[in-house]
Amino acid sequence: MISINTNSAASAASYNLGNINISLQKSLQRLSSGSRINSSYDDAGGLAVSMKLSASIRRTEATQANVNNSMAFLETQDGVLKSADKLVARMSELAQLANDVTKSTSDLALYQTEVDTLKSQLSSMMSETFNGISLFSSGIVTTPATATTLSVVTSQDGSQSIGITQAHLGSVGAYVGTASASGINISSTTGAKAAISTVNAAIQNLAQLRAYNGAEQSRLNFASDTLSINKTNLEAANSRIIDVDVAEESSKLARFNILQQAGTAMLAQANQSTQSLLRLLS
């Protein structure tokens, strides 16, 4: 049947050309954005999963930043403990120097003056902070406590955490003192002899504090490595869902371009077909 009012061939060609144009626009959008999913219509389920994975990635990054800050806290704490180590070692040296029968009372008094100055410095160290958070627990104790005082979250869902310690630097001050009226006194030979063993006890506590610090740094470092691995895996999983395969999409784009050109030509051909009716009417 040949009619003027209805050109089904042109309608079909126009319909196919419209679909091809839509596919071509989507392909161009994917290649220009680098994303396979640019709207919820493209892949509703994939978009939902990608959104959750993206949120997990962001939380993992934030968690890793927090862990790194805690590492910096411990590194700062260890820096102060290292200085305290030099300070106590100097006290030990002074105590040994004072344990000398050839030293006069005036000489011993001079040694004691330096010891008192070192005690004041130790007291100042105990009040050191990191971003307003105390590096050391307050109070004077004879034995460093092993209980952790700060909790560091080490998983993006908040289910895992690691405790770190505000070290008891007061366990060093308990032996050597934190003021001129406390701790060791080497103003006499007898006091100097007693000070040697007292300072050794302080050194033992200080060594214990640094050992705790190193162990906690090591654990946080492993936690940071785990977060880095988890982030990499999450990004890879999300990429498989959201990112466009450029090679595949480029092939589709070439095919759609050819189909668009062919569809345009066929639509023009279909529109020309009705002109043959003019010969019947002439």
Task: Explain the layout of strands and helices.
Layout (H helix, E strand, L loop, with lengths): L7 H26 L10 H55 L6 H21 L3 E2 L2 E2 L15 E4 L7 E4 L5 H7 L12 H54 L3 H28 L3 H5 L1
Antiparallel strand pairs: 1-2, 3-4
How would you describe this structure to a colleague?
The protein is mainly alpha-helical. It folds into 2 domains: 17-34 and 246-269, no CATH class; 46-241, f41 fragment of flagellin, N-terminal domain, CATH 1.20.1330. 70% of the residues lie in helices and 4% in strands. It is built from 7 helices and 4 strands; from the N terminus they run αααββββαααα. It has helices at 8-33, 44-98, 105-125, 170-176, 189-242, 246-273, 277-281; strands at residues 129-130, 133-134, 150-153, 161-164. It has a two-stranded antiparallel sheet with strand order 1-2. A two-stranded antiparallel ribbon has the order 3-4. Strand 1 and strand 2 (133-134) form a beta hairpin. The longest helix is centred in the first third of the chain and has 55 residues, at 44-98. The radius of gyration is 39 Å and the shape is rod-shaped. The mean pLDDT is 91.
